[in-house]
Amino acid sequence: MTTNSPDAPAGGRTSVEAALKPASGAQRAARETVFELRNVSVFYGRQKAVNDVSMDIYRNTITALIGPSGCGKSTLLRSLNRMNDLIPGARVEGKVLYQGADVYSPQVNPVQVRKKIGMVFQRPNPFPKSIYDNVAFGPRTVGMKGDMDEIVERALRGAALWDDVKDRLKDNAYGMSGGQQQRLCIARAIATEPDVILMDEPCSALDPVSTGRIEDLMLQLKERFTIVVVTHNMQQAARVSDMTAFLMVQVGADEHSRWGELVEYDETNKIFTNPSDERTDNYISGRIG
Amino acid sequence: MADRYQGPRRARLATAGARAAVESVFGEQPRGDRISGMVFRALMLLALATALVMLTSLIIYSAWRGWGRLDLDMITEKPSRIRPEQAGYGPALVGSIYMIVGVIVLVVPVGVGAAVYLEEYAKKDRWYNRLIELNIQNLAGVPSIVFGILGLAFIARGPIGLGLVVATGSITLALLVLPTVIIAAREAIRAVPSSIREGSLALGATQWQTISRQVLPAAAPGILTGVILAVARAMGEAAPLLLVGAAGFTPFLPVLFDGQYSALPVQIYRNAVEPREEFQTLAFAGVILMLAVLLAMNSFAVWLRNRYERRW
């Protein structure tokens, strides 16, 4: 029992639209599944980047994807909201089901997918506009109703940034520190009230203090959102995540092709204290990777 | 146990390494490096000085030779073959302004549109897109007289047949500078980091929303610079206009689709080839007038660009 929208079988325009709507309160059972990945493989041209990943991602949890460089964790993350579509030649096989609806079904508009599944990138990428306009851009483009000042304030408060910037909302976002810029990007992502937030190494360009603030923020945000985070930093995964997936690089028989594979996916506690797979144990104890 | 603790030793090693690195940067430079640095600097300065001397001597010489006619009549009066001492550049100036406006109106939407297509929509691996790109770059190098013939054959006569009017001149000049504008706009669009596009798309913006609300505003200052350079070039062109009917001594102000017209560079040329001294003076005064118009246009563009940038 992983599907939580029995009224929304996969495929067909109406069912997809229905599935993309926010789940009502009654549906929020414990460990509700948001994503079901079934034998997902991602290709760049003829090169396979991720091979045959199957896993479920649960609502209001933080799921961490860890593994060495080149293991395809970012690629896998970007396949969840169809950001890989932007890369020429990228192709996804298998099924990515979001609330039971196939994200890659031909009837699905990737723009609608990204409205529900927001993303925060590795390097803070604020728009070259004012702080206010950065946050308001999303709600304006998706046509959100309501008082824009309120929407912006709510998002900035949500990202623990309001007190820092309330007196300089009209200033250019490029004048902020790196950590503030990244929190602005989080505010921007939550302003459109998505369901899931994908974070691609959100702290890799930040100092330890800013990193700590982002991690605190993630723990707050998981009350409202489902978070999937790619991280290089195992301590970070151990500190913030509820579930951890460990991916590894596999080298093909010809020594030239390499792709990522899911080794183990379990509760973070289990992965870090008592992993089932020897490779996971070796990686987290620092013997490989 | 104590001898296995590596802390202080590592710290000493690190300090020594850092000190060596700093010394290599701030320490005494070898003599050879200093001299070659100075020579290089002097050469660069010479290059800059050459450019500046040429430009200032051109302006000073033109102002000196044209001094007698740097008056209001020169700007407002009609040209005359008979009385050069009272003649001016009125119709030519108005013709040039008509054409500048026409070029901007035509070239901005078409040029930016083509650049957006090539940068944001075109699949780079398709042969026809590569062919288009190659052709645009070649077109930017085509001599202006060729565009004059094109304008005469296809716009003044032929399928469009507007006749020898100021609109024909405008369209011809717009075609002439279109490749330059496309190339400049593409550069400006390409300079917008892809992280901006990704950030916008990840918020659920469509591709068109991303282009119109993020990419184009960010690229606007660069596009504007390209447009201004192109328009300045269009304004200075005489050769293609000679073929599409810019008259030498028309006393009438131009009408968009009707009647004779003139342009500043053409009028300057016509004056310069007349034998009498007064015409020569008037030609030099025209050069100063044209430079003033160019300067005014560029200043306006700089002001516009600064205003745009401050809004961020």
TrEMBL record, chain B:
Transmembrane segments: 39-64, 97-118, 139-156, 162-185, 238-257, 282-304
Tagged with keyword Cell membrane: yes
GO cellular component, one term: plasma membrane
Protein biosynthesis is among the record's keywords: no
Positions of the ABC transmembrane type-1 domain: 93-301
Keywords tagged on the record: Cell membrane, Membrane, Transmembrane, Transmembrane helix, Transport
UniProt membrane topology term: Multi-pass membrane protein
Compartment(s) of residence: Cell membrane
Principal cellular location given in the protein's record: membrane
InterPro entries: MetI-like, MetI-like_sf, Phosphate_PstA
Domain of life: Bacteria
SUPFAM superfamilies, per database record: MetI-like (SSF161098)
Stretches assigned to coiled coil: none
Family: Belongs to the binding-protein-dependent transport system permease family. CysTW subfamily.
Protein task: Part of the binding-protein-dependent transport system for phosphate; probably responsible for the translocation of the substrate across the membrane.
PANTHER family found in the cross-reference section: PHOSPHATE TRANSPORT SYSTEM PERMEASE PROTEIN PSTA-RELATED
Cited NCBIfam families: 3a0107s02c
Name of the protein in its database record: Phosphate transport system permease protein PstA
Source species of the chain: Thermocrispum agreste
